[in-house]
Structures are given as structure tokens and as C-alpha cells.
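Private note to self, pasted from the team thread so I don't lose it. C-alpha cells:
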């Protein structure tokens, strides 16, 4: 099973971006991979609004990336943090795959169609909500983690 690093935005519309990251992880799992999305973990213990903690989270994420076999750039925009992750993957020679929001949404709808045939789907309201990724991220001034 391939370990893949999920690279998608966090800042901006955090709620939708987290929903999208979870969907990207599900998409990767459905492809037979073991996904890791550090931006689903580190915001639980670090404050992204504090520049030093944001930088620490990015640095920890880059360390996790080094253990992965691929980096998947997910969605339709690349944030500052994502640029750092992509640059590090290139530096380490880790293969980079691009996965569009449409591909991920299609995967969700395929899974959802299977679930609607099952009684369990009745207990999952909101599962078919559209995922939109349009907010822009404004990194902190003077943040120097990557080129």
C-alpha cells in the first residue's frame, strides 16, 4: 500500500478546506493508498493564526512528507503552504501527482451512490454536499520556509 501525502489548502474557508481534505483522503484510500493529511492533524494541537505555530506545523509536515512515497496536489489552487510542500517533494525526488477537485468529487459521488443502496446512508445527512475551494490564503509577512 502506497503512503501518499495529501497536499491541499487549509487557510481561508477552513471548514470547506477541511471537508475537502477529508474527501481527498477518502479518494486516496479508495485508490488503495494510505493517505496522510497533516493539516487534518496539526491544527488540532497548533494555532494556525500564530505565525510561529504555523511555521512549526509546516516544518513538521515537511518531515512527514519525507517518509511518503508520493505527494498528491489536490484541488484547484496552490496555497503558500502547499508551495512549500511541493518544493520539498521536488527537492527530495518524491513523485508528485495532481488530483483535481472534480476527480475527488467524482470519487465521493461514486462512494455515495454505493452507500445510498445501503441503509447506513440514511444516517449520513450532508454526505453529498458540494465541496468548493475558492478562498485565497494570505501567508504571514516575513514567513521564510521555502523559496
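Design output:
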Amino acid at each position: 500500500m502506497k503512503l501518499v501525502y495529501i497536499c491541499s489548502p487549509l487557510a481561508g474557508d477552513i471548514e470547506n478546506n477541511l471537508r475537502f481534505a477529508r474527501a481527498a483522503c477518502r479518494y486516496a484510500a479508495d485508490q488503495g493508498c494510505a493517505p496522510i493529511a497533516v493539516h487534518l492533524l496539526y491544527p488540532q494541537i497548533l494555532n494556525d493564526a500564530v505565525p510561529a505555530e504555523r511555521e512549526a506545523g509546516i516544518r513538521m509536515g515537511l518531515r512527514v512528507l519525507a517518509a511518503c512515497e508520493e505527494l498528491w496536489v489536490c484541488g484547484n489552487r496552490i496555497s503558500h503552504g502547499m508551495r512549500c510542500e511541493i518544493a520539498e517533494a521536488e527537492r527530495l525526488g518524491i513523485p508528485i501527482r495532481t488530483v483535481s477537485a472534480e476527480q475527488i468529487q467524482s470519487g465521493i459521488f461514486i462512494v455515495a451512490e454505493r452507500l445510498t443502496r445501503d441503509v447506513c446512508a440514511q444516517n449520513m445527512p450532508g454526505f453529498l454536499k458540494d465541496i468548493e475551494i475558492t478562498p485565497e490564503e494570505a501567508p504571514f509577512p516575513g514567513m521564510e520556509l521555502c523559496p
